[in-house]
């Protein structure tokens, strides 16, 4: 540890990330509030001039050994990673430097859909039928092995990027070629899976010494039936019966064991239908973008009726947290930073009001011009904030090729139903101006 103004040690953390975007800034702000020396390790440093003024460390996520060697001269007390590829390097660096994090093999499995599916299947978890399709063999041969409906996926892309449903051979061929065009020459395969019916959920959690601490179950109220699977609305707490919620948590705990995850945040995606819970993805990182802004936590003393139960995601009134960004509450980023340094955060629980986020989808490709209706959208009862992250002149690419959103809407209310209504009413008030490729675009002066 480094030393502060007196004899008090200042904890050091390395934050691995592929960009210096808004999510990274939120972590930096949280670290300043907590008195943590946070250093960024990123592969974008060659185009930056020390944006934080704190000597960000240049690394290459495709050169693990070289990057780990470069990090050996930077002692730290913990690791945090934002993104799947950064999590792999963080795991290798943590092992080399002797600090807690997920093992390298587990982080690699999380970043590879085929390997993860194999581990889930071996552990007896409910997974769809799946196989790898060599890109070189073309769509016709792969389609003969598929049953319909099915879903085609790139092995290494995160979220819903490149995920396409096909209901017949012609749709399969179109999806195959579309995904192949997205991938570079280093990726020889894509994955084909049977389509799973049912509702979709996301779960945010921490893992400590291999044990799962669930933080929130998000319902995804949109059907997400394809052909693309763009995530939009997340609402917590879940409106599902307690038995369903327990099954979701138990499935994720089993997935964590199957993958070998040990210490750090996890973000998981599942479906649930009449057969039960199906694990889709488990990531060795927290939820992406600004979505974590939808979560706030209170502190509950252990040994009381308000402490965290063995299963489920608790919420309710508890004691105030120290050094919060919002009086009485801690953010997810603050919780993750404390956990990375070895602090016991098992008594944290989500605030009692319902909350949610809408990731504002890109309705069409083109050049972003402007948005109208922001004031009206922000005044919808229950809406906390409307943040537009798209920039004037930005080239917008929708799913399945795209990997971004126009922005985020956040809401809090007494019930999940009111949160969902607030998010949708706020979104309906927004009117985005997106120029097509044939339009003349002149940025404002």
Could you please describe the fold and organization of this structure?
By secondary structure, the chain is an alpha+beta fold. Among the domains are: 2-110, Rossmann fold (3-Layer(aba) Sandwich); 129-194, Dna Ligase, domain 1 (2-Layer Sandwich), CATH 3.30.1490; 355-435, D-amino Acid Aminotransferase, Chain A, domain 1 (2-Layer Sandwich). The protein is built from 11 helices and 24 strands. It has helices at residues 22-34, 64-71, 84-97, 104-110, 113-122, 138-145, 169-182, 242-259, 332-340, 374-378, 416-428; strands at 2-3, 9-10, 12-17, 37-42, 57-58, 78-82, 130-134, 150-154, 164-166, 189-194, 199-208, 211-220, 233-236, 264-273, 276-283, 296-299, 330-331, 348-350, 354-360, 366-372, 383-388, 395-396, 407-413, 431-435. It has a 4-stranded parallel beta sheet with strand order 5-4-3-6, with helices on both faces. Strands 7-10-8-9 form a 4-stranded antiparallel beta sheet, with helices on both faces. α1 packs across α9 (332-340), α5 (113-122) packs across α8 and α6 (138-145) crosses α7 (169-182). The radius of gyration is 22 Å and the shape is globular.
């Amino acid at each position: 540890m480094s030393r502060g103004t007196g004899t008090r040690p200042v904890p050091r953390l390395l934050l691995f990330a592929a960009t210096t975007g808004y999510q990274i800034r939120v972590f930096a702000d949280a670290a300043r509030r907590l008195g943590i020396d946070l250093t960024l390790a990123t592969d974008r440093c060659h185009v930056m001039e020390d944006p934080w003024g704190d000597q960000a460390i240049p690394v290459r996520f495709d050169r693990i050994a070289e990057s780990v060697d470069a990090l050996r001269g930077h002692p730290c007390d913990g690791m945090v990673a934002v993104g799947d590829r950064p999590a792999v390097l963080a795991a290798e660096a943590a092992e080399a430097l002797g600090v807690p994090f997920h093992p390298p093999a587990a982080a690699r499995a999380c970043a590879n859909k085929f390997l993860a599916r194999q581990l889930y299947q071996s552990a007896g978890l409910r997974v769809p039928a799946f196989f790898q399709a060599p890109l070189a063999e073309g769509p016709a041969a792969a389609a003969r092995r598929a049953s319909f409906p099915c879903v085609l996926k790139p092995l290494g892309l995160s979220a819903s990027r490149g995920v396409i449903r096909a209901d017949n051979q012609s749709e399969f061929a179109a999806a195959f070629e579309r995904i192949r065009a997205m991938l570079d020459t280093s990726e020889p395969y894509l994955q084909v899976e049977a389509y799973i019916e049912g509702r979709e959920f996301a779960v945010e959690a921490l893992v400590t010494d291999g044990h799962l601490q669930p933080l929130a179950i998000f319902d995804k109220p949109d059907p997400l039936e394809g052909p693309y699977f763009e995530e939009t609305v997340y609402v917590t707490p879940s409106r599902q019966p307690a038995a369903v919620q327990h099954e979701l948590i138990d499935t994720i705990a089993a997935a964590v064991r199957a993958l070998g995850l040990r210490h750090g945040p996890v973000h998981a995606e599942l479906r649930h239908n009449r057969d039960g819970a199906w694990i889709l993805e488990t990531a060795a990182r927290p939820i992406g973008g600004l979505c974590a802004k939808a979560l706030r936590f209170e502190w509950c003393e252990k040994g009381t009726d308000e402490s965290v139960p063995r299963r489920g995601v608790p919420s309710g009134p508890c004691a105030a947290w120290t050094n919060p960004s919002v009086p009485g509450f801690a953010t997810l980023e603050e919780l993750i930073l404390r956990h990375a340094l070895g602090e016991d955060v098992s008594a944290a629980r989500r605030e009692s009001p319902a909350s949610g986020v809408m990731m504002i989808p890109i309705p069409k490709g083109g050049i972003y011009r402007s948005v109208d209706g922001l004031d009206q959208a922000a005044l919808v009862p229950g809406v906390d904030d409307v943040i537009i992250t798209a920039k004037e002149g930005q080239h917008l690419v929708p799913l399945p090729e795209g990997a971004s959103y126009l922005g985020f809407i956040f809401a809090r209310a007494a019930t999940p139903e009111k949160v969902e209504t607030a998010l949708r009413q706020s979104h309906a008030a927004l009117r985005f101006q997106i120029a097509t490729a044939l339009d003349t675009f002149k940025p404002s002066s």
